Amino acid sequence: MIEKDFVKEGLRRTRIDEYLETKLERAGYGGMDIQVTPVGTMVIVYAEKPGMVIGRGGKTVRSITKTLQNNFDLENPQVEVKEVKVPELNPRIMAHKCVAMLQRGMQFRRVAYANIRRIMNAGAQGVEITISGKIRGSRSACAKFHDGYIKKCGEPSTKHVKEGFATVTLKPGVLGIYVRIMPPEVILPDNVEISEPEAVDVVAEETPVVEEVAATEIQEEITGEDILEELSEEAELEEITEEEENSSFLESHIKKFEEEIIPKIKDDIEKITQEEKDIVNSLHEKEEISFLDSSKFSELKEKVEKIHLKLQKSNE
């Protein structure tokens, strides 16, 4: 018995849909929805032109309500009209637009491509229009036109893809127009987005812990031995820095002698004595000079400069 009730309810909904489609064809009928409430039965009608559904002074709505109550056994029916915001994304409206264009004598390919462009420009992910019947000659044929991406099987095709059907009677015979549209807001199950990992500021998280540890260690007593150790460490650091400064000082002056003074001396090396030659050649032995202290290196520097001045005077 329960199965028969479901079948009976389904047949009644189909008959109501067919009645509204024929009654509101000029208003751009886009479908209906029936909701049973404790007060009565709410019939929501979607149309491109709600004004034509309501009629002058509500005449059309009252006639539809009366027909639903008398012919389809609906308890206290209440008709509510809603406007379709984007008619191009409603397949039933677009199927009826194809019917109207074919009735005006337009060629079926032109009709299909024109409506496909309108649907895709409205933002649809995909569309398919099928026109079947005597479209080319005396024999029946089927022509399919599609654009974009549209699902044809599985749960996404039944759940997300909207379908619309309409018929048109021409001189050769009856043509059937079948429109399938996948709306732009559909998110398919295979659409996976991988988000980038968020940058975590490690330093900002560790600073409070360091502050807590420092606050606990400040309470330790400072003795005389600790002060002596700190002074000795500071003295060692000063010695290291002095050695580094001396080494850098020696390297810079050795480089200066090699680039500026020694080439001038080598041009006139025959004019100097053997002892002076040994002094000049000692500058090339960097490893031995690096062990000299600043006072000894300054003596060596003075000797080389004297040799350089001597050669300059002799050349003048």
Which key phrases capture this entry?
alpha+beta; rod-shaped; 11 helices; 316 residues
Summed up:
The chain is an alpha+beta fold and 316 residues long. 53% of the residues lie in helices and 17% in strands.
Write the layout of secondary structure elements.
Elements: H1 2-23, E1 29-36, E2 41-47, H2 50-54, H3 59-71, E3 77-83, H4 91-103, H5 108-121, E4 126-133, E5 141-148, H6 155-159, E6 162-169, E7 174-182, H7 202-217, H8 224-267, H9 274-281, H10 286-289, H11 294-315
Parallel strand pairs: 2-3
Antiparallel strand pairs: 1-2, 4-5, 4-7, 6-7
Strand order of the largest sheet: 5-4-7-6
Count of distinct strands:
7
Could you state the order of secondary-structure elements as H and E?
Answer: HEEHHEHHEEHEEHHHHH
Mean pLDDT, all residues: 79
DSSP helix count?
Answer: 11
Question: So what's the oligomer here?
Answer: single chain
Distance between the termini: 132 Å
Task: Determine Rg (CA atoms, Å).
Answer: 49 Å
